[in-house]
Design goal:
The protein has 96 residues and is α+β, with helices and mostly antiparallel strands. It is built from two helices and five strands. The strands form two sheets. Strands 1-2-3 form a three-stranded antiparallel sheet, with no helix packed on it. A two-stranded antiparallel sheet has the order 4-5.
């Protein structure tokens, strides 16, 4: 005999049986940024400095990912080349 409690501001309902939670239902949940129909008339855009800093951070992350991927690629191909006799100084990922 579960009782239901509705939470309209949270867009959810919860069913309780005594003190135990039996179920939760989220209905039509949208995050804050999607609930605004139109931007306010007095909205000021963020200064360009913030956008540039965010782009620089993303570019640094991409560069780090590429560097790691290139290192993994070189290790993998170095092992194959060593197996074929092309690189005598290669020893399982460690250069001698």
């Amino acid at each position: 005999m579960a009782r239901v409690l509705h939470f309209p501001k949270l867009n959810s309902s919860a069913w309780f049986d005594g003190s135990e939670l039996d179920g939760i239902a989220h209905w039509g949940f949208r995050s804050e940024k999607w609930t605004m129909k139109a931007k306010p008339a007095d909205r000021q855009p963020l200064p360009e400095v913030y956008g540039l800093a965010r782009e620089a951070q993303k570019q640094a992350e991409v560069d780090l990912f590429r560097a790691r991927a290139n290192a993994r690629f070189l290790l993998a191909t170095g092992g194959r080349q060593h197996a074929q006799g092309a690189s005598p100084a290669y020893d399982g990922g460690r250069e001698l």
